[in-house]
Amino acid sequence: MPPADPAALAGALRRWLTDPDLRDRLRRAARQRRDTLTRWPVTAHRLAAALKEATAA
To answer: Residue 38: CB partners within 8 Å, gap ≥ 6?
Structure first.
């Protein structure tokens, strides 16, 4: 979906709201992706370290 394209966003949302198969596929993909992501404490620590490094420069 192109950025700053309200019609494209509306179409994507409409499809998501009206297509149960699409929602199911997206739900399953999100659950699989969740299992590969780092947990929030690790992410927060990495973000804090990056911000500290950026502000020290």
So the answer is: 46
User: Does 1 fall in a domain?
Assistant: no
Rounded Cα–Cα distance for residues 48 and 54 (Å):
10
- Each residue's pLDDT tens digit, 29-53: 999 999 898 899 999 999 999 999 9
In this structure, the chain runs to a length of 57
pLDDT of residue 8: 96
Number of domains in the chain: 1
Q: How far apart are CA 17 and CA 11, in angstroms?
A: 10
